[in-house]
Design goal:
The protein has six helices and two strands, in the order H-H-H-H-E-E-H-H. It is mainly α. It has a two-stranded antiparallel ribbon. The longest helix is centred in the first third of the chain and has 24 residues. The mean pLDDT is 88.
Protein backbone atom coordinates (compact mmCIF):
# COMPACT_ATOMS: atom_id res chain seq x y z
CA UNK A 1 0.00 0.00 0.00
CA UNK A 2 1.37 3.44 -0.93
CA UNK A 3 0.86 6.73 0.79
CA UNK A 4 0.10 8.55 -2.45
CA UNK A 5 -2.46 11.34 -2.05
CA UNK A 6 -5.81 10.53 -3.57
CA UNK A 7 -6.92 12.66 -6.49
CA UNK A 8 -10.06 14.62 -5.66
CA UNK A 9 -13.29 13.09 -6.90
CA UNK A 10 -14.35 14.52 -10.24
CA UNK A 11 -17.59 16.50 -10.25
CA UNK A 12 -20.43 14.78 -12.16
CA UNK A 13 -20.44 17.49 -14.85
CA UNK A 14 -16.91 16.48 -15.95
CA UNK A 15 -18.36 13.42 -17.68
CA UNK A 16 -18.65 13.57 -21.46
CA UNK A 17 -21.84 15.38 -22.48
CA UNK A 18 -22.54 16.67 -18.98
CA UNK A 19 -20.72 20.02 -19.26
CA UNK A 20 -23.95 22.00 -19.34
CA UNK A 21 -24.95 20.59 -15.95
CA UNK A 22 -22.37 22.86 -14.34
CA UNK A 23 -23.69 25.39 -11.84
CA UNK A 24 -24.49 28.77 -13.44
CA UNK A 25 -21.51 30.36 -11.69
CA UNK A 26 -19.11 27.90 -13.35
CA UNK A 27 -20.78 28.34 -16.74
CA UNK A 28 -20.40 32.12 -16.38
CA UNK A 29 -16.76 31.68 -15.36
CA UNK A 30 -16.12 29.49 -18.43
CA UNK A 31 -17.70 32.18 -20.62
CA UNK A 32 -15.50 34.85 -18.97
CA UNK A 33 -12.33 32.81 -19.47
CA UNK A 34 -13.23 32.16 -23.12
CA UNK A 35 -13.98 35.85 -23.74
CA UNK A 36 -10.78 36.87 -21.97
CA UNK A 37 -8.68 34.53 -24.06
CA UNK A 38 -10.08 36.11 -27.23
CA UNK A 39 -9.20 39.65 -26.08
CA UNK A 40 -5.42 39.27 -26.45
CA UNK A 41 -5.82 37.69 -29.88
CA UNK A 42 -8.12 40.46 -31.15
CA UNK A 43 -6.06 43.30 -29.65
CA UNK A 44 -2.80 41.90 -30.99
CA UNK A 45 -4.31 41.56 -34.48
CA UNK A 46 -5.73 45.11 -34.40
CA UNK A 47 -2.50 46.63 -33.08
CA UNK A 48 -0.14 44.68 -35.33
CA UNK A 49 1.65 43.23 -32.30
CA UNK A 50 2.24 39.57 -31.60
CA UNK A 51 0.44 38.16 -28.58
CA UNK A 52 3.78 37.82 -26.75
CA UNK A 53 4.57 41.49 -27.47
CA UNK A 54 1.15 42.46 -26.12
CA UNK A 55 1.62 40.34 -22.98
CA UNK A 56 5.05 41.94 -22.49
CA UNK A 57 3.45 45.41 -22.67
CA UNK A 58 0.83 44.29 -20.13
CA UNK A 59 3.59 43.20 -17.72
CA UNK A 60 5.46 46.48 -18.25
CA UNK A 61 2.30 48.51 -17.68
CA UNK A 62 2.25 47.11 -14.12
CA UNK A 63 5.97 47.32 -13.28
CA UNK A 64 9.42 47.84 -14.68
CA UNK A 65 11.23 44.53 -15.18
CA UNK A 66 14.36 43.49 -17.00
CA UNK A 67 14.74 41.37 -20.12
CA UNK A 68 15.60 38.26 -18.08
CA UNK A 69 12.34 38.65 -16.15
CA UNK A 70 10.44 39.03 -19.44
CA UNK A 71 11.95 35.70 -20.55
CA UNK A 72 10.96 34.06 -17.27
CA UNK A 73 7.37 35.35 -17.32
CA UNK A 74 6.82 34.45 -20.97
CA UNK A 75 8.61 31.12 -20.49
CA UNK A 76 10.87 31.78 -23.48
CA UNK A 77 14.63 31.88 -23.91
CA UNK A 78 16.53 35.07 -23.14
CA UNK A 79 17.33 35.32 -26.87
CA UNK A 80 13.62 35.17 -27.73
CA UNK A 81 12.83 37.77 -25.05
CA UNK A 82 15.55 40.04 -26.46
CA UNK A 83 13.89 39.81 -29.89
CA UNK A 84 10.49 40.67 -28.41
CA UNK A 85 11.95 43.65 -26.54
CA UNK A 86 13.92 44.79 -29.62
CA UNK A 87 10.70 44.86 -31.67
CA UNK A 88 8.87 46.83 -28.97
CA UNK A 89 11.78 49.29 -28.69
CA UNK A 90 11.88 49.75 -32.48
CA UNK A 91 8.15 50.60 -32.44
CA UNK A 92 8.71 53.14 -29.67
CA UNK A 93 6.59 51.22 -27.15
CA UNK A 94 9.42 50.34 -24.72
CA UNK A 95 12.65 52.00 -23.58
CA UNK A 96 15.70 50.32 -22.08
CA UNK A 97 17.14 52.21 -19.11
CA UNK A 98 19.95 51.44 -16.69
CA UNK A 99 18.71 49.98 -13.40
CA UNK A 100 18.65 52.69 -10.71
CA UNK A 101 20.67 50.68 -8.18
CA UNK A 102 22.70 48.32 -10.35
CA UNK A 103 23.93 50.09 -13.47
CA UNK A 104 25.01 46.75 -15.00
CA UNK A 105 21.34 45.73 -15.26
CA UNK A 106 18.73 47.06 -17.65
CA UNK A 107 15.14 47.92 -16.84
CA UNK A 108 12.40 48.08 -19.41
CA UNK A 109 9.95 50.98 -19.26
CA UNK A 110 6.71 51.20 -21.20
CA UNK A 111 6.42 54.48 -23.10
CA UNK A 112 3.33 56.62 -23.58
CA UNK A 113 3.07 55.04 -27.03
CA UNK A 114 3.13 51.53 -25.55
CA UNK A 115 0.62 52.41 -22.86
CA UNK A 116 -1.61 54.08 -25.46
CA UNK A 117 -1.44 50.95 -27.63
CA UNK A 118 -2.93 48.90 -24.80
CA UNK A 119 -5.34 51.47 -23.36
CA UNK A 120 -6.66 52.57 -26.75
CA UNK A 121 -7.83 49.09 -27.67
CA UNK A 122 -9.04 48.11 -24.20
CA UNK A 123 -10.78 51.35 -23.11
CA UNK A 124 -14.29 50.21 -24.13
CA UNK A 125 -13.82 47.09 -21.98
CA UNK A 126 -12.35 49.09 -19.07
CA UNK A 127 -15.26 51.56 -19.15
CA UNK A 128 -17.86 48.76 -19.26
CA UNK A 129 -16.15 46.90 -16.41
CA UNK A 130 -16.02 50.08 -14.33
CA UNK A 131 -19.75 50.71 -14.87
CA UNK A 132 -20.55 47.08 -14.06
CA UNK A 133 -18.42 47.15 -10.89
CA UNK A 134 -20.11 50.37 -9.75
CA UNK A 135 -23.51 48.62 -9.94
CA UNK A 136 -22.63 46.32 -7.01
CA UNK A 137 -22.84 47.06 -3.30
CA UNK A 138 -19.69 46.73 -1.23
CA UNK A 139 -21.03 43.45 0.20
CA UNK A 140 -21.68 42.06 -3.29
CA UNK A 141 -18.20 43.12 -4.40
CA UNK A 142 -16.70 41.24 -1.45
CA UNK A 143 -18.51 38.04 -2.50
CA UNK A 144 -17.50 38.46 -6.15
CA UNK A 145 -13.89 39.08 -5.14
CA UNK A 146 -13.87 36.00 -2.90
CA UNK A 147 -15.29 33.90 -5.75
CA UNK A 148 -12.77 35.20 -8.28
CA UNK A 149 -9.81 34.77 -5.89
CA UNK A 150 -10.92 31.18 -5.28
CA UNK A 151 -11.27 30.61 -9.03
CA UNK A 152 -7.77 32.01 -9.53
CA UNK A 153 -6.42 29.60 -6.93
CA UNK A 154 -8.20 26.73 -8.73
CA UNK A 155 -6.59 27.74 -12.05
CA UNK A 156 -3.22 27.87 -10.33
CA UNK A 157 -3.66 24.20 -9.42
CA UNK A 158 -2.80 23.59 -13.08
CA UNK A 159 -0.64 26.55 -14.10
CA UNK A 160 1.15 27.48 -10.89
CA UNK A 161 1.02 30.98 -9.43
CA UNK A 162 1.49 34.07 -11.58
CA UNK A 163 5.23 34.81 -11.70
CA UNK A 164 6.27 37.77 -9.59
CA UNK A 165 9.26 39.97 -10.28
CA UNK A 166 12.60 38.80 -8.98
CA UNK A 167 14.50 41.82 -10.40
Amino acid sequence: MTDQPQAPAAPAWVERGAERRQPPTLLALRDLVAAGSRVNHVVSRRSGLTETELVTLEHLSREQIGPAEVARRLEVSTAAATGIVDRLVSRGHVERRPHELDRRRTELHITDSGRGEIIGHLMPMFAALDRHDASFTEEEKAVVERYLRGATAAFEQVSGPVPRSTD
